Every structure is written in structure tokens, then in C-alpha cells.
Amino acid sequence: GFPFLGRSYKSCDCSEPLEILLEHKCYLSEEMVEKTFRNANLGTIWVLMEYINKWRRELENLLSLLPKCGSESQHGYTSDGRVLDAGAPQAVSLLRSYGICPYTKFRLRRDNYRLSQRLGPGGAKSIYHNISIHINKYKYKVDELAQRAYDLGFWGVDTEFDRRTPLMQAYQLDRYEGYVMWLVNHKASLRRPFTWTIVDAQRQEGSYTVPKHTVLHKLCRLDKWGCHPTLTDFYTEILPHAIATAGSDRLANGCTCSCSSPTAADRVGNERTGCSPLTVLLNHLFDLWGFRFGMHIKLLDFLNQVQKHAEVVIRCLTFRRLHIRHTCCLSRSADEWQKDQLQHKYGSNFKELREEDQNLIYLLNTLINEFTSRYRTWDLPLSKFLTGP
Fold it and tell me: What pTM value is reported for the model?
């Protein structure tokens, strides 16, 4: 291993000794790479990334000698400037199928990270998964580190490892908003399904319906970011833009609750119900800040640009004013969301609650029709409409 990368050296610049060891072909394991990302400073990690980039380019040079038979698209190899990252194990397998062993050619041990990381049942870990490890311990300029990796050609910002993309992993760590924002800005998918850690056998019993959350649903309910004195740019700019571009009204998660209305029909004509990411975001912000619209005016003015988004705001606000109880994912605490857990009895009392609140739900739907009609007629900005003409 690298003895100089222990915890006591986390504030030291170890780039020079690391570079010397790497140039002399010191064995580089996946564990050593993870240790470097976990304990080293930015300068040391930059040296490591540049070195991995150098060797992965050598691997690409070998691939370029193979006959062109569609291998690029099938094995993750492209000639557009990107570095072989999580696709390296498939590239090594492809070379072996042609009788070429890159480890033998370069006189390296077969599990040397210079050419490839391990490929397990959950896939191969990308450079951005390792950057998430760096966040977990120390808050350096991680978005700067990610940008450096991207500039080197590591473009796999949305690669899955163990059913988690780097964005999902960064969400779970809940440590550094900047890295999450960087991933969103670099087109990490917000529409990917986010799997709950619930026993599959219980899910199959059909005793309850598990919310079908996407990454965007999860990001809309991060408690930590809403606790600042003022709403962050993530809530007022990044998330609203993501909601608009991801078509969040078509990401209903299957919940049944009067806090959200049926969405547009899907391709086979079935109405999809449930909490959209926007519904989740609004309820979360109202939980944190109440009805102080001055806190939300930037967000409300953004949502005012799309009528269907404005109507979601009106529904969420009216629902809360009537003190109707949630019978959806919003009935559970944000802490349960953070841990990807739901109680095994989730949903067992929802039908009973809806029956008890049926008069309030009827009043809600009546008021929604009235309020949305006024909103369309008065032609006021949403923030003005909510506080009166």
C-alpha cells in the first residue's frame, strides 16, 4: 500500500512520492485507489487521476488495433476523447477474446488498477463513485476535483455501481451540495428509479404499494439543505430547472393521495397518479418554512411560467390549509427517506384515513376548481395570487 496516505497525512501534499512510486510501476490495487481518494488532498488525487488516464489511453491504443466490428458501442470504448473508466473491464475482456492479454503485454499483475478495476455483480466503480468517498470524509472543493476528472476525459458521470449512480451515492452521503449540483449540471440522470431497501418478499405480498421514486424525488426532500437561513440556489434554481427539464409531471410515483392530482395519461391511456417531484419539493419546503411566501418567491415566480406547475402549488397549499392527512410517501419522515427505509406496515392505514377525511377531500377538490379558475382569470404572478390581488 501507500503508507504515506494514512489519516494523519490527510492535510499533506503526497503527490511527489506517489508519482515516483507510480512511475516505477508500483502495484496499484483498487483498495489503494480508494484509500487515496479517502485520505489524500486534491493535489495527490490529481496525480493519481492523471496517471490512470495515461494507462487507460494505452488500453485504448490496444483496442484501436482490433477490427472494427461494432466493438466500440458494445464494450464501452469510444474514440471521442473519453477515458475508459467503468468500461475498462469489458475492454480487457474484448482484447482477451482476440488473444491479446493487456496485463501480459505491459508486464502488470492481472488485477492492476492501471488497466482496469474489478467487475463485480454490481458493475465496476467509476472515478465519480470514488470522488463520493472523498466527500464522505473531508469537504474539499469536490466539484473542482470532479471537473478536473471530467476535463481529463472521465465522462461517465451516470455509471451505475451496485445499483447506485454517483448522484445517488452523493445523495445518500448528504455531505456536500456542490458535488450534487455539479453532477446535475453535467447531465447525471434524474429520472433513474431509486430502489428502496425493503425485503423483496414483503413487497411481493402486495400488502402495500412501494412508492416508485426517482433520483429527482429523493433530491426534492433533503432536510439538510433546507435548514439554511435562506433557500439555497439548489432549491431556487437547480431543482426547479431539473423539474422543468425532466418532465416531472410524468414522474408520478404511484402513491394515492389528494395532495396530488392524476397526471397526464400514459401511452396506453391509463392515468398515472402519485406524488410528482414538484409535489414532494413543495410539501417539504412548506414543512420547513411554513407559509412564509417571501422565502419562496424566487421559486414561485419560476413555477409561474408553467400553468400546470402553478396549479400543483395551489393544490399543495390548499391541502395543507385544510389539515388533510397524507396517504402517500409524504406521510413518512425525511429521515426514513434518507435511509431508504419504509416501515413494514407502510400504507396499512391509508384507506381508513381517506375515508375519515372524505368530507375534507371533497371540499379540497371544490376549492381547487375555484382557485385555479381565479388564477387563470386574474392573470397575476403566482406569488401575488397567493397573497391576494
Answer: 0.78
Ramachandran quadrant class, 357 (left: phi over 0; alpha: psi -120 to 50; beta: rest):
alpha
Q: Distance (Å, rounded) from C-alpha 25 to C-alpha 29?
A: 12
**pLDDT tens, residue by residue, 354-379:** 999 999 999 999 999 999 898 888 88
Q: What is the pLDDT of residues 79-137, one digit of tens each?
A: 455 788 888 998 899 999 999 999 999 999 888 999 998 888 778 889 999 887 776 55
Gap between the Cα atoms of 332 and 326, Å rounded: 9
